[in-house]
TrEMBL record:
Pathway: Isoprenoid biosynthesis; isopentenyl diphosphate biosynthesis via DXP pathway; isopentenyl diphosphate from 1-deoxy-D-xylulose 5-phosphate: step 2/6. GO terms for biological process: isopentenyl diphosphate biosynthetic process, methylerythritol 4-phosphate pathway. GO terms for molecular function: 2-C-methyl-D-erythritol 4-phosphate cytidylyltransferase activity. It comes from Sheuella amnicola. Keywords: Isoprene biosynthesis, Nucleotidyltransferase, Transferase. This is 2-C-methyl-D-erythritol 4-phosphate cytidylyltransferase. Catalyzes the formation of 4-diphosphocytidyl-2-C-methyl-D-erythritol from CTP and 2-C-methyl-D-erythritol 4-phosphate (MEP). The lineage of its organism: Bacteria, Pseudomonadati, Pseudomonadota, Betaproteobacteria, Burkholderiales. The record marks R17, K28 as: Transition state stabilizer.
Amino acid sequence: MPERVIALVPAAGIGARASTNGTSVEPKQYRVLAGKPMLWHSVNALLADPRVKEVRVIVAPTDQRATDILSDLPRTRCYPFGGEQRSDTVFNGLSRTDFAPNDWVLVHDAARPGLPADALTRLLDACLSRNVGGLLAMPMADTVKLEDDQQCVERTLDRKHLWLAQTPQMFRAGELQSALKQAAFAGFVVTDEASAMEFVGYKPLLVPGSGRNAKITWPEDFDWVQSWL
């Protein structure tokens, strides 16, 4: 089977931090932005490049909404294989849908609805031309402080080589599946796909992302993302 590029969107969480009271009445990916649920925008952004053959959205087993919300988007399917943690959801998506080991998988956050087409193209171009996995990221612009155990500044970190990870993150499906399995077995906390790959010895490529590709995390994020979405 020839190698394919397939996007995978883990969308089984509730996003409690995005709620004003710390709990979520509905998963944040279904909050409406610019007339459409956030999940719709995040998935639609992945379809901007024709090299993405399909988008697979992995939702919670009891989720009945995503299929209807995404019904007007081409090359998109939903699967009820969501796990307890994001890494579980990604692993389930890789192991329970028809990924071939040499397929490229683009894992993208459901809470990044502003992914620009040119950023997606940069990632695809870089990874495919160099045959190496990588991720979108932004060089750190702010001064970064390290705190002590009293929540005071321990020291200021040199930001010269610091980057903020974004998504999509792009790796061979078989290699990412293996890395996630090894990390889980070792009890390593996986914060993104790149961290799992780093755990097993890979050095992912850093590809410049975009400020518009920020992740919606806090309640106030919805307003500023909607202002330009």
